[in-house]
Design goal:
eight-stranded mixed β-sheet; about 230 residues; 1 helix; mainly beta; globular
Length: about 230
């Protein structure tokens, strides 16, 4: 998982069931060690200038020193992620992995009640206890709010709580079906778009049909909040 953070404030990463440090298995990074665990992100002291992005590291997202691959264009003989020249992947064949970052939650507090954007379209939120998803009640997002999926297991509570979303909220490739059948607790937006997404190994995630129920202040608002999927 790679996290990019810009703007005001600070970001803390919390690892549940952590282990390590250990050498990377799928990347060529001599002298680099990784910690393993289920990550949650806490952002404090943020304002309108703050942005956070989370994605998994693969041939479609890693830095390409050759400049030969363009994620926005179709794969072709001249635009092929397998030819990504990043030294991260030297001597490593294409690995069989889903190309999606695993994340427990993102919690945000803001000094001015605003935040830039949350770009986690390549991330799946899940947890077995506490909150899982995006928790930023009262915070207005002036940039995009994109999440790959949210899925609560066991005693976890799924959340998508914000103050407002100027550019809307999108689920990129997920269906929001909850393993524990709990309703997602929402606030701060009136429409939820289901759109297509992509993985870090250049896989395509088609837009899905909503499989969740949504509650706001104890009231079921599923019928009014879901926008039909957009391929």
């Amino acid at each position: 998982m790679q996290v990019e953070f810009t703007g005001a404030g600070s970001l803390s990463l919390v690892l549940d069931e952590s282990s390590g440090p250990a050498a990377p298995l799928l990347y060529r990074q001599p002298g680099v060690s990784y910690m393993k665990g289920h990550a949650g992100l806490v952002v404090t002291g943020a304002d309108e200038t703050t942005h956070v992005t989370v994605f998994s590291v693969g041939r479609a997202t890693a830095f390409d020193p050759t400049g030969a691959f363009n994620l926005a264009q179709p794969v072709s003989a001249t635009n092929d992620p397998a030819r990504n020249g990043s030294p991260l992947f030297q001597d490593h064949p294409a690995s069989d992995y889903d190309g999606i970052a695993d994340l427990a939650f993102i919690a945000i507090s803001s000094t001015d009640g605003k935040f830039g954007g949350v770009r986690t379209g390549d991330a799946s939120f899940f947890g077995t206890n506490g909150y899982t998803g995006l928790y930023a009640p009262g915070v207005e997002f002036t940039g995009p709010v994109n999440l790959g999926n949210i899925n609560a297991h066991n005693e976890a509570t799924p959340v998508l709580q914000i103050g407002a979303a100027d550019l809307g909220v999108a689920i990129t490739g997920g269906d929001l079906k909850q393993d524990n059948a709990r309703a997602i607790q929402v606030s701060g937006f009136t429409r939820l778009n289901f759109v297509a997404g992509a993985t870090s190994n250049n896989g395509v995630l088609p837009a899905q049909t909503n499989q969740a129920h949504f509650e706001q202040n104890g009231r079921d608002i599923t019928a009014t909040i879901v926008v039909s999927r957009q391929n």
